[in-house]
Amino acid sequence: MKLDRVDKSYGGTTVFRGLTLEVPSEGVTALVGPSGCGKTTALRLLAGLETPDAGRVEDVPDRLSMVFEDDLLLPWASALANVELVGATRARAASLLAELGLAGREDLRVASLSGGQRRRVAVARALAYPAEAFLLDEPTQRLDAESAAAVLSAVRSHAQGAPVLIVTHDPAVAAACDCTMRLSDADRPS
User: Fold this and answer.
1) Distance of alpha carbon 124 from the chain centroid
2) Are 178 and 30 in contact (CB under 8 A)?
3) Which phi and psi angles does 21 have, rounded to 5°?
4) Distance CA 79, CA 75 (A)
5) Band of the pLDDT at 12, cuts 50, 70, 90?
6) pLDDT tens, 127-137?
7) Which H helix or E strand runs over 77?
8) 123 and 68 in contact (C-beta within 8 Å)?
9) Engineering a disulfide at 33: which of 3, 29, 37, 85 sits with its beta carbon 3.0 to 4.6 angstroms away?
10) Does residue 190 register a pLDDT over 50?
């Protein structure tokens, strides 16, 4: 997956000018940088949710799975139902939730779960989809170190060699990835 000399602006604010970013074809890659430098925009461009003003998005597989910055769960549905939405069997959904420390909470409505529990449901849903690449925006936000480690372990286990790009502000998460790419304010025009 690659952004090739991409320009992107929103209104009068330029996010990127000439950004090139190539995600390794396998393994877990961290995308780090200060708040507001365009990490989420880079994910959205790769996912096809945004269109570059100039440049190209290349080599993106057809089947992507994404964890968004906001959980985007159905609050009235159970944790299990939210994971089943992507076509997972009940058994697979329950297994993923248990792996992420949510055993016994599968049938609870998402609205009744804590922020960290909802985050893990969103990760379980992304991992349940048979994707060829995973784009994860702050998948460990609102999680303690033990839960974050469980998320990273599950990502490695279920990505099965597919490329994974994780946006993170957490140095421990970045250190646990196979490689790190950095965006900075220097990547933005002044």
Assistant:
1) 11
2) no
3) -145, 120
4) 9
5) confident
6) 999 999 999 99
7) none
8) no
9) 37
10) no
